[in-house]
Amino acid sequence: MNFLKKNWSNILFIIFIILLIVPQTRKPIQIGLNRLIAFSPSEISEEKREELDNYNWRLKGMDGEVYHFNETQGQVAVVNLWATWCPPCIAEMPSFQKLYDDYNGKVNFYFVSSEETEALTAFLQKKGYTLPIFQPMSMSPEILQSYSLPTTYVISKTGEIVVNKTGAANWNDDNFRELLDRLLKEEL
C-alpha cells in the first residue's frame, strides 16, 4: 500500500503514456487536448496581409456538382483544409459548425478535403455536421496551398488574407465573430 501512495503520480503518468500509444485511445485524447488548447485565431496585421489575386480553383461538392472558387470573389470567404483522420481538424469542427449555422448565407465556407467521398460522407453523418465539404478538382491558388492540416484562411471582400491559421482554433469565439462582422461591413 505504501508503494501506491508514494508512486501514484508515476503510475498515472505511465497509464497516460500507454493510452497515448494505443490507437483506440490516442485519437480521442489528441482531439480532447486540441480542443482544450484551441484559442481564437489571430488577425494578420494590415501591413503584413497578402492578397489573393487568383481565384481560379475548381472544387467538387458532396453533391457531385462542380463549383468555381472565383464565384466567391468580392465576398468574405473561409477556406479550411482538413481531413477526417486529423485530430486537430476534428477538434475544431464543432466550433466551425456553430459558426456556419450563424453565418451561412453571409460568408462563403469551403471545407476542402482530398479524401474519398465515402469517408467524408460517413464522417459528416456520424458527427451530424452540415458543413459544405468540397474536394479539389484543380490546384488551389498558390497562396492557399499548405502542407499542414488543418489550415484555415479568411479572405476579405478585397481578396486580402486576413487570417492564415495552421492548427486547431476556436472559430466560434466572440473575437472571431467580431472580425467576420467587420469584414462583412467593409465596402469593396
Fold topology:
Layout: H1 2-21, H2 23-37, E1 58-61, E2 66-68, E3 77-81, H3 87-103, E4 108-112, H4 117-127, E5 133-136, E6 151-155, E7 161-166, H5 174-185
Helix pairs in contact: 2-3
CATH architecture of the largest domain: 3-Layer(aba) Sandwich
> Which sheet architecture does the biggest sheet show?
7 strands, mixed
Count of discrete structural domains:
2
Helix content: 25-40%
**How do the strands line up in the largest sheet?**
2-1-5-4-3-6-7
The rough form would be described as globular
- The helix tally amounts to 5
Mind telling me the CATH class of the largest domain? Alpha Beta
3D architecture notes:
Residues 48-185 form the Thioredoxin domain. The protein is α/β, with parallel strands linked by helices. 40% of the residues lie in helices and 17% in strands. The chain has 2 domains: 2-34, no CATH class; 38-185, Glutaredoxin (3-Layer(aba) Sandwich), CATH 3.40.30. It has 5 helices and 7 strands. The chain has a 7-stranded mixed β-sheet, with no helix packed on it. Strand 3 (77-81), helix 3 and strand 4 form a beta-alpha-beta unit. Helix 2 (23-37) packs across helix 3. The longest helix is centred in the first third of the chain and has 20 residues, at 2-21. The radius of gyration is 19 Å and the shape is globular.
